[in-house]
Amino acid sequence: MTVSNTSSRTAGVGARVRAILALDGPVAGTALTVFQYFVVSVSFLACLGPALAFAALVGWQPTHLAIWLGAASLLPLVPATYALLRSTRRLLAERGEARAGRLFWRSFASGCRHLAWAAIAASAVVLLLAYDFALFGGSDAMLLFVAASGAASLAFFIAVSLAAEAKDEHAAVALATAAAKVIARHPHIVLSWLLLTGLGVAALALPVVGPPLALFLPALLGVGIHICNDALRLPLIDETRHTP
Question: Which residues touch 67 (CB under 8 Å, ≥6 apart)?
Fold first, then answer.
């Protein structure tokens, strides 16, 4: 009886181990999910290639050429943010089965077509703030103004991307109005987006884990924004659609 119980217990443990390590088991599913996060994050960083190249080769300089080049290098930011939020929404729901990388690039192409006005507006805001900083950067009040305006602009364009994700139409006025309503009615949710972004940027400065974290951080931030929206009950951004 003891030998039989021992062999059956051993067989049960072996079956559980085989189930865990199977191709459709939790270990493989977790590894595939981590890989999906990696693909989405690297795709987002690839869209920011012009901005990263500008930062590495030129950097901040109070000259007309540097300011204009810096603003132009951020043109892909809004379509990339829209693609990030779309792909991470599916990644949050479907995990390893999401095929989030393919969805990211399809969404980025769609964002380049439908959100070109937002991309141009974001670069224009950066251009104006850069000139303000170049001309009056020695003033503490101007530095505070530039930082506050940059944070408000970032929140607005995240809200535009969320509105574009939730809506079937991509009219500029409708998306801008929906984004403004979200910011006005749910400022605590907007603050959570900025807090997550600030913590993510600060984590990149960590000496050992910072560089490897950059390969997963964009997807983690996108998922974090969706989790905050769901936890704080952000309603569907669809006030302008007429229902029958």
Answer: 61, 127, 130, 131, 134
CA–CA gap between residue 189 and residue 229 (Å, rounded): 7
Cα 215–216–220 angle (5° rounding)? 155
pLDDT confidence bin for 4, thresholds 50/70/90: low
Q: Give the tokens for residue 112.
A: 């380049």
Kindly state the tokens that stand for 66. 């540097």
Q: Could you tell me if 91 and 105 are in contact, meaning their C-beta atoms sit under 8 angstroms apart?
A: no
Lowest mean pLDDT among 4-8, 33-37, 85-89, 217-221: 4-8
Cα 41 to the chain's mean position, in Å? 8
DSSP characters over 2-63: HHHHHHHHHHHHHHHHHHHHSTTSHHHHHHHHHHHHHHHHHHHHHHTHHHHHHHHHT---SS
- Residue type present at position 155: A
Separation in Å, CA 223 to CA 36, 41, 88, 217: 12, 11, 6, 10
Residue 17 is encoded by which pair of tokens?
């181990």
pLDDT at 107 over 50: yes
Q: What count of other Cβ atoms lies within 10 Å of the Cβ of residue 242?
A: 4
